[in-house]
Amino acid sequence: MKFIRQRSKIIDNYIIGKYLGTFVYTLAVFVVVIIIFDLSEKLDDFLENDMTVWQIITQYYAGSIPFYVNMLSPLMNFIAVIFFTAKMADQTEIVPILSGGVSFNRFLRPYFISAFIIFSVSLISNLFILPYTNKIKNSFENQVINKNDPYTKSNIHMKIDENTYIYIDNFDNRSNIGYRFSLDRFNGDTLQKKLVAEQISYDSVKHVWKLSNYSIRNINGLKERMEYATNKTKDTILDMKPDDFSVYDNVVESMTSKELADKIQKEKIRGSGVMNDLRFEQYKRYIQPLSAFVLTLIGVALSSRKVRGGVGLPLGIGIVLSFLFIVLNQFAKMFSTKGGLPPLIANLLPVIVFAALGLYLLRRAPK
To answer: What is the pTM of this model?
Structure first.
């Protein structure tokens, strides 16, 4: 027993190695399986577009693999903890540790060190890596996989600042061209300027909008002045981007943290109805990594007791609970984006529910 107390750091390294090793191995296996199924599903699209292996890897899987890793991390985290902890309990490795005077809270320390490592990697990935890789994945899916889906948005009304309103009859998301555009600028309740153009297009090099076949009506009290420019173009800077008119739902997850914050500030003025989607994505990037601690707590409390049948029962319960966690996350997202549930509460709800479950299981765990 004295030997165990003196060698507690060795036990820490042993548990951390088991935790992270099992997590990485399990995650890698599941990612490979998903890629195989995904490749078989999208193979016709790849062949139809005459894509080389290198193009498939760099234009699609370079973005989709980080997405799959992030999606599967909570599930694999939970399964890894339950699998190797239940195996330790089945091989009677936990009993001598606790019998040697190591408290259960002290026993949890290496687990939470490992969970902190996973939390840190997940947080950094959510904030700095996934927005860029999601942009690669989503761009490919929108242009190749979903190319037959509708790609125009109609009857767009938007407020782009306190005094300016725009309208676009329809906008083509592939060519970044809008048709029958109008802009109204007010001073209070008084119309000061009205611009009408047959076509508006975005120049991605100059980052300006080009107006074609336009007319401008300037109003100053009772005086009005008209400008007509048939078969002419005009460059103008407007506080809007083609992504503001996207028909795709995956645009938000491709935004960097700064772009997301700027979009939220603009949405406060525009009120186009996507605030909950933006807020949910913003909070998710910070709150989702906390699941590493919650699921680790549940996993250890659930599988640290030796049971008849080995690791099968704890692993089965763990898989069921992990899927319940994913389902609860999806329901919370749906109620937030479609049902009016505050995005912060929607993100915290699964974490709070499972944290309460973890504390309950911890009280019942063998000490």
So the answer is: 0.85
